[in-house]
User: Fold this.
Amino acid sequence: MFLLLSQSVISKNLYQPIVSTIGFRGNDKTETYILHREVAHPVNLMLDTVLVDEDKNRLENLGLFSEISTEIVPLEDGTVKLIYVVIESIHKTPPLVFPTYDEDTGWSFAGLWMINNFRGRNQSLILNGTFGGRDTYSVSFNDPWIFGDHISFAFNISRIIFEHRFLNRNLELNNFSLKLGKWYGLSVKTQFGLDLGRKQYFNEQYKESFTFFGITGEIRYDTRDIYWNPGKGLLLVHGFYHQNGINPSEFNTTLFTQSLSLYKKISKKGKKKVIAFNTSSSIKYGSKSDLWLEYFGNSSTIRGWSPPDSNLYLAGKQPFRFGHDSFLFSMEFRHELIPKRATQVGTEFGLSLVIFSEFGVIANQWKDINKIIPMQGYGAGIRIPFPIVSVIRVDLAWGYRSRLWNPGVIHFGIGQKF
Assistant:
């Protein structure tokens, strides 16, 4: 009873005892030091509810827990023990086979063994294989603290074969990549990577391959409170990816990408309501053949447009959907209908409604961006929190361009669009 009263008073900033001890409960699988390194509240100082909330957000951002709460336990000397109580979500999948869908390649059967909290140290280990629309195998590993304070390491080995979305050719990609990252403070996050790969395009009459060495880099300025469902803050990302040909040696291409996302909570009480904006661009230099074309019209670009196929591309019916350089703007209103909570079986449950609008342009050259009529998309969808992948999204959207509306299109995706 005293505990409940204390939490109520603390929430109103009326009760501010001295915190002499910090503890954790519920982390049966996760090592305690993983939680400790996310907690910044000092001991032997007055309880600060702002710091407590920030600690809870950082624990949430680990992606390991379905629920996080706090308890205040009075001690005999008049101080209190601050306890962070966590409910661990599902951290791994048994080896299993299940159907999976991708907008570019259609249905496949996937064999997956995933450990999202390997050895209880917030490491991830994934063994994956699929057959059907996409034939793949991959092994990946990631450790966000392998060399100390937010110094990360990741590697991936993969082989992917699928029918290209619109080129009437198959694509085989073999790749090995290594990445190192470092945070400077809590907001500036950098990553640098190297990879070695081979792309092969082929059909019954055609075969062309490219072996390349790649360099990638990224810097982020990130002030979001909660990564999977931000209520405030911004995310600014600048990145590049350079591919230098080994065979043929004259092949090279460099892609620069920029993205800015803003999040503003507009509800002071009750369930969370957020307005979110994103603007992004990409500019490519070097080789710009048809093999490296991108397209607009799917769950990650402009919703409300069905992904193109080879008939549409080869007939030249919608050339405004293909290119190398692009600009995109999206706006979403996100209304949390059921806040995320843990279920008795260790999964998560929650539901959010999203209403969105977006427009964008893709072209072969950046100088032509302002000469092309933008593609637009409008619609609504739902977001369902889910262990390991953070959130599942389903959207129903209608595309618009030059006074013409598209029929409604349903899009599926993993994670927030931005």
